[in-house]
Fold these 3 entries.
Entry 1:
Amino acid sequence: MKLYAAHLHAIAEALQNIFREGAYADREIARVLKADKRRGSNDRAFIAEHTYAIVRYYRLYAHLAGVEPQSKADWWRLIGIHLLLNDYQLPDWREFQGLDREELQSALEAARQDRALRESIPDWLDALGASELGEEWEATIAALNEQAPVVLRVNRLKADAVTVIESLGREGIVVEPLADDALLVTERKNLFRTKAFRQGLFEVQDYSSQQAAPALEVEPGQLVVDACAGAGGKSLHLAALMENKGRLLSLDIHGWKLEELKRRARRNGVANLETRPITSTKVIKRLTAKADRVLLDVPCSGLGVLRRNPDAKWKLSPESVDRVVEEQRQILADYSRMVKPGGKLVYATCSILPRENGEQLAAFLSSPAGEGWELEEERSLLPQRDGYDGFFISRLSRTR
Ligand SMILES: C[S@@+](CC[C@H](N)C(=O)[O-])C[C@H]1O[C@@H](n2cnc3c(N)ncnc32)[C@H](O)[C@@H]1O
């Protein structure tokens, strides 16, 4: 593809804001793309794809460039390195002067000897991953640097797989059945503009994430609480599994996320969902021993979804991981009380660290709060083994 200076300017601006102004990569890319409405879908895809790739390989590229980028010229240098390593022919522009493909290749070979550099992650994260996952870490972090597959979940309140496949097919988008209600998108296209999406026939949701709601074994007519609902990816799935019958309470500490969930619920034809922001501990206390089912899709490090959110590598710290582990402990201890005896709870994370997953659960079960609970099932999903996001899903039942 021909290189356009305007695209590279947009990428440099996004990178500066992500790395120096603390912007989130997804929001910043959306902002940059919105700023110039004349761009076509190929231009937009180019900017998004290459910005993400440079965020992902930031440490490696900065090492090869020999700079900690601060200025526009520095970011252009990183962009040039990225393009050269991805077989682009660099135009004869002043910004790219001094960049040489062969020199770069030999510097890359040397850098590859060091895993943290090769995989472009901070040293502390490499040490943490190795100590937490042992031999599995090397393949896990390599898989987390690959581009994520795009998976859809058919909204069974409105459609079946065949309807979605045919509707998207009419708009030139090919999807293949994957398993259950999951469809794999074989070519990247803007799915959100399709008729099928606007009609609420599907949601974009990774296949690992699609396994959380079914694990809760909900039944139509139950009282189900999704206690960390966010914008509701899993609430929408729960409502479909409940066939719109019973009560689904979606809670979160951030009311604005629940507003987004309400919009999505309308599009999905969900009729049994109520949102409730957690404004005080009373919201949880009032539900003590009331729920048949509780989903705890807790805040986590997000290390299982680095493919989608590569900037998390640069935003996390050992301290922030410790903090989130403590939040999870608290949520598990307090929110599990909402389950009534005989009811069930799913504890899930999009992390690959045993500290946030199996160890967190084991600590709960051996604590006073875990008395009267039994572990029914636990599964760790790894990108290199299972093919999708890193995820942890466990189900507990309350015996008394
Ligand atoms: C992993 S995200 C949830 C994603 C969501 N379930 C989905 O499927 O789209 C975790 C959510 O927990 C929320 N959260 C953080 N601390 C919380 C707390 N103490 N109580 C309830 N929710 C909390 C965050 O705002 C965030 O939306």
Entry 2:
Amino acid sequence: MAESNLIMIKPLSRIDPRLRSKAFAFLEKLTEDDSAPGLHIEPIKNSADPRVRTGRVDLQFRAVLFRLTGANDVSYVFHGIWNHDDAIRIAQRTKLKTNPVNGLMEVIEATTPKEEPATSTWVPSPGAPTAATSTADAGPSPATGPAAVTGTAPVLGATAGTAPAPAPGPAASVESAIVPTRRPWQVAATRAELVNGLGLDEALAERVLACADEDAILDLAGAFVDWRSNALLELAAGATVAEVKDRLEITEAPGRDDSDQAILDGLRQPASQGAFTFVENNDELRRIIEEGDFGAWRVWLHPEQRKYVTRDYQGPFRLSGGAGTGKTVVLLHRARRLAKANPQARIVLTTFTTNLADALARDLSRLDPDLPRAQELGDPGVLVRGVDALAYAAIKSAGSEISAAVDDVLGAPSSHVQQRTAGDAWKAAIATAGSDLPAALHTPHFLQAEYEAVVLPGHITAQADYLRVRRPGRGVRLNRKERAAVWQVIEAYRASSRVEGTLDFAEAATVAAAHLTKQAAEGQGHRADHLLVDEGQDLSPAHWQLLRALVGEGPNDLFIAEDSHQRIYGHKLVLGQYGIRIVGRSQRLTLNYRTTAENLHFALGVLDGGTYADLEDQPEETGRYHSSRRGPVPQVIACGSMNGELDTAANLIRGWAEQAPQEGRGTETIAILVRDQYQRDRVVSGLGERGVNVRPVDREAVKPGPPVAMTMHRAKGTEFSKVLLFGMSEKSIPKIVRGADYSVDEKQDALLRERSLLYVAASRARDELVVTWSGEASELLPRG
Ligand SMILES: Nc1ncnc2c1ncn2[C@@H]1O[C@H](COP(=O)(O)OP(=O)(O)OP(=O)(O)O)[C@@H](O)[C@H]1O
């Protein structure tokens, strides 16, 4: 009996649900004893690679594998499962090889069996994807075969078919020309650099140079499973050969032969681990098979992601990246890496809302169900909490000692601060004490922003201090009289909260930070060793003060994931002002895993016209991001009336829901996103009247069942296969942007947040995106 290792290939690991249990049983047996008679592990006559084997999954299906003999053990590379005849043909033609320049392993398909594999000719297997309509069941699988298992030129990442969206209802006109798709492209490298520097063979280099537009190079990238897929994607995004090598951590390793050991060595390089993984045990194998492509993030990290997971930093680090570039995935893996390295470490993983924190907690369990989890702030293990929940936990654990911090921040001691201030408290304070306020400042929005950006962070408790405080980044200038008027309202607000025994969220975070800072100054230490922050762009000054106070300065103290294009709450700020000095420790992820290139292009189009700065106040550019996947161009549909728009939506959702089972998905992977709860409920009832059942989602998680409707804010952190953005008319832009009562700066910032909100919403769509409105279209929609 001979145990063996198993190496799974990323895109081929998606196995038709009907074959999952058989595939698992087969592979489990293979790792226990590859000579077990039921497996029928057999070499193939006239095969291009003598290492190739087929194995019997059941009467109809065969697995194709490669057997590698290392110094001490045997490993199998799992290539895929096909119908018997296809499997034999693929096994005859496919070969593993070591790249002569960089030593990485490659999967090559020979044009004919036993012919020296045509490394110089890329040969798509029958039915392999060549255009935007690549689907998960491309390849030689029969109708009953494994939809996800393709030929040697499989599709990367496509999880659902890309059938055109069902026709819109009556009284609607499709404005599909809004999004240009084909963008001209030219490789930023010479032929010699591609061949001698990167390691592409001559023919592939030729094909790369011949690609005239983005579609062509993306299609070419999708034809490979090994390191070349990511390398071509980087080239598609405009990288030079030096940049590709740097991002994928490709080093030169000439002289490696094609021996089994050389191939195994090549497989262990970071550039290979984005596509190949050594399966650790049967539990892991089961999860890889069961989760298929949806669990790919758990197993196959892009070399850049891996770098940010494993590297140590001597202080705060900032990882930026557009929607869907895998920032959250990095955070989850990094939390796990830190917890495994030191089980006693107190690791806090936090984000802006409770919903997002719940999603992080669920995904961390998916990543590693056995990871030690902390229940309370200060316990060893990983604690996952929303940032406001951290503040309240710190306040609760302080007991009556919190009184001094309340005094410090608010100017009067109190330990009765567990309740939250009512949402309309600023309005009430303006009504009580706002008579001297100029009209432009007469808004709860302005006062809350002033309070959170200037008053609380500075621990200002007296009018005299407010009158002379610096107000960087606040836009609106205030003279002395205006400041006095603002202060009167702030005092009224504080007085009312004092009577009620409440704190608002920003006050709670500031008070908690003050308490923790004092404790640390008294030598009582900090509550956490490592803090990992998601959605950093949405956090307020008080949050950053709290986070800085929770963890002492030191190695791996703060790791911040953020995307300033997705700031939909709060105001722009600069981290350095809150004791978080990044200086030179920031990097960006650019490969979008979630959305198709077409949807990404649309989403990025929404951002045009806004100017953005990151958390270090550096300009943030749009347009750097690229996607590995292709799909239909988003449809934008103008409707004559609300009723017409509802008819269109009903048609569309009905059609998508019918397609879902054929595409192997539940209907809850379809979402309608709207601007607010009122509209959400209106859509749900309007569709109900048209016989289409849609479930409104609020705070709860999305569960298997009918399509869902939710607000664009709630959609943050989620993703769906198909998304309808409903009601994208000019009227959907809220009053603060249109109304006369607001200052120019406030309006501009609010408009920027609206753009970001639409960008967030559009970037939730993995496969298909449709946008509808009635009346006048929102000015934020991209124009063709
Ligand atoms: N290495 C990977 N392999 C496969 N899928 C991945 C990988 N990394 C991320 N993904 C998938 O891409 C999608 C987006 O990932 P993630 O949520 O981490 O991105 P994000 O940058 O945090 O996005 P957002 O800013 O929009 O929240 C998820 O479906 C995730 O599973």
Entry 3:
Amino acid sequence: MYRLIPSEEETRDEERTEAGSVRTHNRFISETDADKPKGRFQSFRQKIKSMLPSVFHSDPCPVSWRSKATGATPGAPGNSFTIPKRNEEYLLDRVFLRRLKRLLKVLFGKRSKITWMYVGMIMFCILNEFVIYYVGTIPSRYYKVLGDKDSSGFLRLLLVSLGTVFMAGLGKSIIFLFGSLLALESRKVLTLHFHQIYIQPKLFYRILMIHEDEVDNPDQRITQDIDKLTEALRKMTEDLNIMPLLIAFYTWQCWEMAGYIGPLCIYGYFLLSCATSRMLINPIVDAIFYKESAEGYFRYLHVRFRQFAESITFSRGEGEAKDSADASLEVLMLTQLDIIYKELPLKFLQHSVSYFGSILSYVIIAIPIFMGVYDDLPSPDISAVISKISFVSMYLTFQFSKVIQCGTDFSDVAGYTSRLGQLLEVLDQLNTEMENIAVDFPHEEARSDTSIRFEKVSFETPSGDVVITDFTHRFEPGVSTVIVGPNGAGKTSLLRVMGGLWPVTKGEILLPHRYRKDVIFLPQTPYLTYGTLREQLVYPNKEMAASVSDADVHRVLKLARLDHIVTVVDGFDTAYTLDWNKMLSPGEQQKMAFARLFYARPVFAVLDEATSSLDTTSEIEMFKQCRLLNITCITVCHNEALEQDHQHRIYLDGFGGWEWSEVQSGNGASRGAGSAFGAGPARSPSEDMESDTLAEGADGSY
Ligand SMILES: Nc1ncnc2c1ncn2[C@@H]1O[C@H](COP(=O)(O)OP(=O)(O)OP(=O)(O)O)[C@@H](O)[C@H]1O
């Protein structure tokens, strides 16, 4: 037996609420809050932040167990516009460094190829820099041979310089290749890491369904932000990876030729530029964070159009769809405009730094020349020296200006790092919560117990409303139970608690030891996986598909009254993606879920309105097959006629109360025997016989 007990974390959250000591970011606040925008840019940002949820959260803002801990009151009277808002600023601070360190640790982990690729790239860059140094000194050699009128020297130099320039070009392209492969590998490593943490039992559900106010668009962060981060890192790496070596080398060269004044001027200039640049980058990091949020919502809106195309069209909602898409685009444009405005001073600084840098290099040359250091040299040699110093000092200032120019890439890196780091932190936090929804392995004596037991279980919604109190019941194999009650009474929530999706606040739930095998949940809308028909039937255990024989496929499809789809698919091993949703109507999709169930034949089938789209005959047939295959149903439904297919009935009153009773008129067994089928449309005895035979056939074969 697995044991689901209240989460300590949840309890702690409540204590925090009562104590009033809460996390400050992710508060729910209203537009009427005191922190009104101050400056022009702040007001701009405020506008973007406030528009994001108002445009995209057409549904009421999700509230979570965690948000409850903030003690805020979404939708409270007077809060005409209540939105979730983050107080966190995304800056180049210690939080950013911590997040970056974490991502780099993943990238340069023990088994990652990235370390070696990076080392290879650095080696190549160093080699290439030797070539570049030679290319840089070529003009001074030309001054010399031309000044000396040395024609054979000139020809030799021409050949050598052509070869070197070709080598330098080739080197740059190879560095680009290295960088691109490195970015590709980095994306793979990071994405796999996120998949590993994010696509975990129940975690996935909790972050998307319950904690979505804490971290927006996790899908976008994984699919796009990682890509953009690795691309920005690639650009920075290509520019900066051997920069410290180059700076050291060219500082020494500059010192040799122009004395300490040269490097001193350049370093002072660089420090000043860096300090200004940092000030200008900070607001961009924040703006990038919000731009990506807006990007995510915009994309999500279009995904929803695709998902609900038919419903929108039936409701003639295209106008509303267009308005919301336009509005979301407007927000996105505002966020992009915000970045453009904030990047403007940075761009100005970057360009000015490189132009001033070239002037500075002439100042550095001028100092030794006016001090008479090179007075005793002949003029061709002075020209050569001037050219060489100019190259060295310009290259040194160029290295520093590259650092400033990387500011834009760096602000990208910082923005994406914040988004990914934040996602990792929320995932960590949820993982801890999941650990606190304890799963205890049973004592030996409990292993044979195949029942599902609820012992005085109470639980509440994520927003803290009590759903059911002190629920005690034992679901026994062979005794099907129907759960009924008004809308919002908590029927599905009871199944969520049974499935470990929601924690209990009191009491405990004991589940069969072979829980994963013995208990199968069928939701109202089944998930159709990408893949072949065989893979659909064994979902989620795709690896078992090969063991499903053609006869098995035919048999379970016939049991689920879905045998006609063998003519729709090209073959049992033909893979389909989105086409599954087009090939199967909602009712057929539910039948597919039953086909899976008939193939797996668990002890319990937990059905949450899983037959809502089926015609009455098929609905009755599904329950009959369950009975014949010894599958005990725990069914949430609104169809009173289905009660006859169950022995027990649980009624939830919607106020936390519940009532257990035996189903009075007839039961599933008697219905299965024949007469009680009168509850559904008339069926021929041969049809019944056929179903029974099929079920028996299935019995023998699985
Ligand atoms: N993620 C959530 N956050 C906050 N409240 C929720 C959440 N999910 C469900 N609830 C609330 O829990 C209550 C019970 O919902 P549940 O889906 O269990 O009802 P139900 O009995 O299955 O309803 P129906 O018959 O309409 O399917 C509802 O009031 C609903 O608003």
